[in-house]
Amino acid sequence: MAVDPLIELQGVNKYYGELHVLKDIDLAVGRGEVVVVIGPSGSGKSTLCRTINRLETVQSGTITLDGRPLPEEGKALARLRAEVGMVFQSFNLFAHKTVLQNVSLAQVKVRGRKRDEADRRSRELLERVGLRAHAAKYPAQLSGGQQQRVAIARALAMEPKAMLFDEPTSALDPEMINEVLEVMRQLARDGMTMVVVTHEMGFARASANRVVFMADGRIVEDRAPEEFFTDPRSERAKDFLSKILKH
Amino acid sequence: MNVLTDNLSTYWEGFLGTVELTVYSSLLALVLGFVMVSFRVAPVASLRVFGTVWVTVLRNTPLTLLFFAVLLGLPRFGLVLPFKVFAVLALGCYTSSFICEALRSGINTVPTGQGEAARSLGMTFAQTLSAVVLPQAFRSVIPPIGSTLIALAKNSAIAGAFSVTELLGTYKTMSELGYNIVWTFAWIALGYLVVTLAISALFHELERTWGVAR
Ligand SMILES: Nc1ncnc2c1ncn2[C@@H]1O[C@H](COP(=O)(O)OP(=O)(O)OP(=O)(O)O)[C@@H](O)[C@H]1O
Ligand SMILES: [Mg+2]
């Protein structure tokens, strides 16, 4: 367990109507820790990310960020959301805004920065993800990998305490996966606290401190990556790994 | 033929009346439509209900009935205003329900993921709607909103029946003076054509500048 938890879930239960999607989830993510979440489709990985960011409400349990419980709704929640960056499988860039505007928008709206100050910071971040030259383009003019890197820069622009990634490379062509993973590896090296839903085992092995294996809405295993991949304890995990290792 | 030249001032007054009704009612309809669509997608249930009731009631009431309700009903509650203001209220509220629905269909064309991304960045509901969702929704709704406002311009003729000075009402004056009814109506129709074509042109221009998908 993490010594200095930045994100902490205790006894979290989430239902969609009758469907029990998250079952008694306890999870602590330490400051600077990288946790990879892995598991079969429908096991609740996306839902877990979305509840940490309160894009979904939970029926019971507590979620704290940096020791503070998540507020219910309204302004306080909006502010808190900005502290946790989220990167989606489908990039979700604002289609009517340029790359630069995508990165600057929330800095101005949420952080109250001046436009030119925000733009300056956006350019720095775009530099960091290798896309400075594309600042004036619209999302549709970029490749998937480039779009996802913009999405990462956009989330980083809020100076979040933690970043959530929900299958950030699943929608990408194979040759673009690595450019996104490289940005994520760099983030991990820089000490960012990260929760990453991914089936990229290379990334998990190289950058993760822990692997959390989920099945049917429960956390089944929570272990160091090497241990988990070479010696899974549960039948569910063995079964799952044998399936994805075949590919 | 000389029906126009002989009655230029009557005709011109009527034309201005129609333009005025159209402009004010359009502004009211756009503002209210905007507010109502915000209600309809709001995270607060009571606002959603209000928006839904507003649209359902207004969209399904015949406009003439609405005119009667406003002109005869509101004074009963002590609200006495010039007929022209009542007419703008009736036309504006009625049309706002159509604007609201057009905007809502536009909102549905914007992928929900973009709204979620905005929220995950800490933007409030109002910020998400105004900076991310509506600007994109607008692009796809420029043509239907144009049609709605053209319909509004033509619907404004009903106000004439309630003694508001507008284009169609001028026929009474002219037919009383014994002018040829066919020509009278032809000129009136031309007046409406000028108004509706102006709206068309405006929306074509808007679509040319904003409607392009990037
Ligand atoms: N908005 C929703 N309404 C109802 N059910 C939902 C909703 N979102 C997800 N679910 C259900 O909740 C369960 C968990 O979904 P979730 O998306 O968290 O799974 P996942 O582990 O991310 O799967 P995948 O690997 O396919 O992305 C699934 O059974 C799914 O059908
Ligand atoms: Mg998922």
UniProtKB/TrEMBL annotation, chain A:
A single MF term (Gene Ontology): ATP hydrolysis activity
Catalytic EC class: translocase
PROSITE patterns, per the entry: ABC_TRANSPORTER_1, ABC_TRANSPORTER_2
Alphabetical UniProt keywords: Amino-acid transport, ATP-binding, Cell membrane, Membrane, Nucleotide-binding, Transport
Places the protein is found: Cell membrane
EC code: 7.4.2.1
UniProt membrane topology term: Peripheral membrane protein
A Pfam short name: ABC_tran
UniProt domain ABC transporter: residue ranges: 7-241
Coiled-coil segments: none
GO CC annotation terms, alphabetical: plasma membrane
Keyword Isomerase attached: no
Catalytic activity: a polar amino acid(out) + ATP + H2O = a polar amino acid(in) + ADP + phosphate + H(+)
Family that this chain belongs to: Belongs to the ABC transporter superfamily.
Protein name: ABC-type polar-amino-acid transporter
TrEMBL record, chain B:
Location of the ABC transmembrane type-1 domain: 15-203
InterPro entries the UniProt entry points to: AA_ABC_transptr_permease_3TM, ArtM/GltK/GlnP/TcyL/YhdX-like, MetI-like, MetI-like_sf
Keyword match Ion transport: no
Compartments (UniProt record): Cell membrane
Swiss-Prot/TrEMBL keywords: Amino-acid transport, Cell membrane, Membrane, Transmembrane, Transmembrane helix, Transport
TM segment ranges: 21-42, 49-74, 80-100, 181-203
Domain of life assignment: Bacteria
Chief place where the protein resides: membrane
GO molecular function: transmembrane transporter activity
Name of the protein in question: Amino acid ABC transporter permease
Native species: Streptomyces alanosinicus
Organism taxonomic ancestry: Bacteria, Bacillati, Actinomycetota, Actinomycetes, Kitasatosporales
